[in-house]
Design goal:
heterotrimer; A mainly alpha (about 600); B mainly alpha (about 200); C mainly alpha (about 100); A: about 600 residues; mainly alpha; Cytochrome C Oxidase, Chain A; two-stranded antiparallel ribbon; two-stranded antiparallel sheet; B: about 200 residues; Four Helix Bundle (Hemerythrin (Met), subunit A); elongated
């Protein structure tokens, strides 16, 4: 069977004729469109999310690589002449980037990476594919809704990217889209807002599906405290998405009204733009936008990290051949973290002139939220102690996640204290902080997950040599890109400067890092080539492996074939008899006991 | 393997899937309208002057709409109760009334809106008009969604009563929960915008 | 569902009618009070109390919340907490800035 763009190794080919003939499909196999494009099977949908998200990630990454030319060599003509010509004189006249275009690249890089790349991959792809298998379910609770989620996401992505072709280009007011700038910005911003409405809707449909599936479709014997930590992470993440996204949807509608209907929700009175007073009614509040935006965007960053922690936890347990340390602490810390994430948002707004009572409140909650994060990271570190560590490719990525997330988290502390945030806010320090958590953090974890679950999806392993090459080169280059940002930030270099700080006296001492970071970024781009080759080559030529090549305990490995049966996942519904990480149980002949293995009488 | 608990309740949660699903969806809607109410509060508290709703808006029309919507909530729950008592014809009557009431709500609303436009009271005119049109407009979109859903369940969707009556009854219960929520939002909207 | 339940349903229906009448009465009450033109603080308090009572009636009886399962209550309580945060914190901001 051809490996179409959805990368779905169709188990249906082998099992189509043996389908239990459950309901509507009867005997004949689904036709192409229903099987690969408008499928309601969570595995196909997960694969669709995976491929689409990876493409968006690559695109968002490419935007950054272009930006980094301008930062390394401000005002110099772009070396890829064909690209400069393609973009045209309104973006890169004679190959030299206009500041307006730099702003578009910056805003779209952030938006695409967060909303079109990382979350769809972490939640849409991994969540959709793995979670139902890990809980022993035949599919998600609402398969048609699942399909709708994917297509609404896809449409949102198309709308977002279409904004590049609008007069004035794509959205250019940052991924944060602050009013009043975003309200008076070019047409691309309207597309951004419409795209966000699509993406938020997709996310809402998905989160309802995830929560109902986890609550209702767990196999017999799979109590909440026997769930793999990955499932817990997806569960809490879904609650964050469910409750935090709607205020941004509301805000998006209000900003659309401001832009399209001339309202003044976020437009203060007496605004003058380029010497011309605006004629709208005024009376609005730019701060209102910030509140509504960050009410979502703070929980959003936990949406970015929690699935990654879930993936790392699974891989660590499997490759240390011992249970995770402190399962209960991990679960309670996760729940507490999810709750706290709703009451820290204004630490993004310390410099808006807020009074000390409010800033003290948010500073306190922000310090408190670091506790569960540390609990989780510590438990994962402690899980290594006394383990028989196997340095498989997924394990390398998972291990690297730990110190990288550590750096990301620690560098967040001065940002969370209102006093130390004053010189650091809006500098490269912030960019370094959040990229450490998301790039050497989450992205490494997502790669770990791809290498880990690839055999489950395809029945073949990815090539180890290419995997390790991908790992080491990415790991080194990631640090090369982001570590110097702390140095620049501490020197006071602001973010979103199209020339990387060249015009400022205080930046002169740290400007030389720009070229270093840019070269690291381009090498990081090259480092992805072995991954891309490996990903596609292994589909056809990878080493064939059994259904449980990593000798794992969780249901997706133990109770199903690789690739899993197309329809219904399991030959028969699994029964769970034990916790998720029964590795190296004393007295047991093998060093792992699958969750569905009955206890001896 | 079929997906379990689509009609029967799962023992430990006591719920069938769609019921949990719709309540979660309603939770997200609470946050959506909550954000709009929060915006209303912030804008009003920060404004030097803010008109009383009854000075600008049509209270009698909105009161009528309130009665209509509450009435439609009753007919909706009666539609479900009829199915629970196996009365399909009664179900169709009550569901039909619910859809009709929804349409009446929209017609009255369109009178309200067009009267405003005739007096050149557009959303852009002031933050009061902006939030009025936006909140009632979003609520109106939800009413339209409910009418379409209920219309489908009254019409072509009602065929499921022949093949799977329990599942169909559950669908009406779930649709009812959504419709009651739309009523609930209006119960807050009406006094806040029109009477304060 | 069995026909044994239809007795329960009939009781429920009486409840629905009673709730409907209460809602109508409360609607009249809330409109009538608005004509009294109370001070802003008092007007808001009374209006919200009446609205909350009406909403509770719809939620408890039309939406059957009064006999719903724990899981639903839990989800709604969590939502209520964050709803309160969303409603009141921006106002505290405003008050703290001025």
């Amino acid at each position: 069977m051809a490996h179409d763009s959805t990368h779905h190794q169709s188990g249906a080919v082998k099992t189509g004729a043996h389908d239990h003939g459950v309901h509507h499909d009867g005997h004949h196999e689904l036709r192409f469109w229903k099987k690969y494009v408008f499928s309601t099977d969570h595995k196909v949908i997960g694969a669709q999310y995976c491929l689409t998200a990876l493409v968006f990630l690559l695109f968002g990454f490419s935007l950054m690589m272009v930006m980094r030319w301008q930062l390394a060599y401000p005002g110099e003509a772009f070396p890829l002449k064909w690209l400069a010509e393609l973009l045209g004189a309104d973006k890169m006249p004679e190959g030299i980037m206009l500041p307006e275009f730099y702003n578009q690249l910056g805003a779209m890089h952030g938006t695409i990476m967060v909303f079109l790349g990382v979350v769809p991959l972490a939640v849409g792809a991994f969540g959709n594919y793995v979670m139902p298998l890990q809980i022993g379910a035949p599919d998600m609770a609402f398969p048609k809704l699942n399909m709708a989620s994917y297509w609404v996401y896809f449409c949102g992505g198309v709308v977002m990217l279409a904004s590049f072709f609008m007069p004035g280009g794509a959205a250019n007011s940052g991924w944060t889209s602050y009013a009043p700038l975003s309200v008076i910005a070019t047409v691309g911003q309207t597309y951004w807002l419409i795209g966000m409405v699509f993406l938020i809707t997709s996310s809402l449909l998905g989160s309802v599906n995830f929560i109902v599936t986890i609550v209702q479709l767990r196999a017999n014997g799979l109590t909440y405290m026997r769930l793999p930590f990955f499932v817990w992470a997806q569960f809490v993440t879904s609650f964050l998405l469910l409750l935090a996204f709607p205020p941004l949807e509301a805000a998006g509608i209000l900003q659309l009204m401001d832009r399209v209907a001339g309202t003044s929700f976020f437009m203060p009175s007496g605004l003058v733009v380029s010497g011309v007073p605006l004629t709208n009614s005024g009376g609005g509040s730019p701060l209102l936008w910030q509140h509504l935006f960050w009410f979502l965007a703070h929980p959003e960053v936990y949406v970015l990290i929690l699935p990654a922690m879930g993936i790392v936890a699974e891989i660590i347990a499997n490759n240390t051949r011992k249970p995770l340390w402190g399962y209960k602490s991990l679960v309670y810390a996760l729940i507490f973290l999810g709750f706290m994430s709703f009451i820290v948002w204004a630490h993004h707004m310390f410099l808006t002139g807020m009074g000390t009572a409010i800033s003290s409140f948010f500073q306190t909650t922000t310090m408190i939220i670091s506790i569960p994060s540390v609990v989780i990271l510590t438990a994962l570190f402690l899980s290594l102690w006394g383990g028989s560590i196997r340095f498989t490719t997924p394990m390398l990525f998972a291990l690297a996640f730990l110190p990288m997330f550590g750096i990301g988290g620690l560098t967040g502390l001065p940002l969370g204290l209102n006093i130390s945030d004053i010189p650091l806010h809006d500098t490269y320090y912030v960019i370094g902080h959040f990229h450490y958590v998301v790039a050497p953090g989450t992205l490494l974890a997502l790669f770990a997950g791809i290498y880990y679950w690839y055999p489950k999806v395809s029945g073949r392993k990815m090539n180890d040599f290419l995997g390790k090459l991908h790992f080491w080169s990415s790991f080194i280059c990631l640090n090369g890109v982001f570590m110097p940002m702390f140095i620049q930030g501490l020197a006071g270099v602001s973010r979103r400067l199209y020339d990387g700080g060249e015009q400022y006296a205080h930046a002169q001492g740290v400007l030389q890092w720009n070229e270093f970071m840019s070269i690291s970024a381009w090498m990081l781009g090259l480092a992805q080539i072995p991954f891309i080759i490996n990903f596609f080559w292994s589909m056809k030529k990878g080493e064939r492996v059994s259904s449980n090549p990593w000798e794992a305990t969780t249901l997706e490995w133990a109770a199903t074939t690789s690739p899993p049966l197309a329809h219904g996942n399991f030959e028969k519904a699994p029964e769970v008899h034990r916790g998720p990480y029964d590795y190296s149980v004393p007295g047991h002949p093998t060093d792992f006991t699958p969750q569905n293995q009955p206890s001896k009488a | 393997m079929d997906i379990p608990y689509t009609s029967t309740a799962r023992p430990d949660s006591g719920l069938y899937n769609a019921k949990l699903g719709v309540w979660l969806f309603l939770a997200s809607e609470v946050m959506l309208f909550g954000a709009l109410f929060s915006s209303y509060i912030l804008l009003r508290v920060g404004a030097p002057t803010w008109p009383h709703g009854y000075e600008i808006l049509n209270v009698p029309l909105a009161t009528t709409n309130t009665v209509v919507l509450i009435g439609s909530s009753v007919t909706m729950v009666m539609a479900w109760a009829s199915l629970m008592m196996k009365g399909f014809k009664k179900y169709r009557l009550y569901m039909g009334l619910t859809v009709l009431a929804g349409l009446i709500f929209l017609v009255i609303k369109s009178f309200e809106y067009s009267a405003k436009f005739e007096h050149h009271l557009y959303p852009s005119q002031s933050t009061f008009m902006a939030i009025y049109f936006t909140i009632t407009g979003l609520h109106g979109l939800h009413v339209i969604g409910g009418i379409i859903l209920n219309g489908y369940l009254w019409g072509p969707g009602s065929k499921m009563w022949q093949t799977d009556p329990k599942r169909f009854t559950n669908r009406i219960e779930v649709a009812g929960l959504y419709w009651h929520f739309v009523d609930l939002v209006w119960i807050f909207l009406f006094p806040v915008l029109y009477l304060l | 569902m069995d026909s044994a339940h239809s007795e329960d349903i009939k009781k429920h229906i009486r409840g629905y009618i009673f709730v409907f009448i209460s809602l109508m009465v409360l609607t009249v009450v809330t409109v009538a009070i608005s004509y009294l033109h109370l001070s802003v603080g008092a007007a808001i308090t009374v209006a919200l109390i009446v609205a909350t009572v009406k909403a509770s009636l719809v939620a408890c009886y039309f939406m059957h919340l009064i006999s719903e399962k724990k899981l639903i209550y839990l989800s709604l309580i969590i939502t209520a907490v964050f709803f309160v945060v969303l409603m009141f914190l921006p106002v505290f901001f405003y008050l703290n800035n001025h």
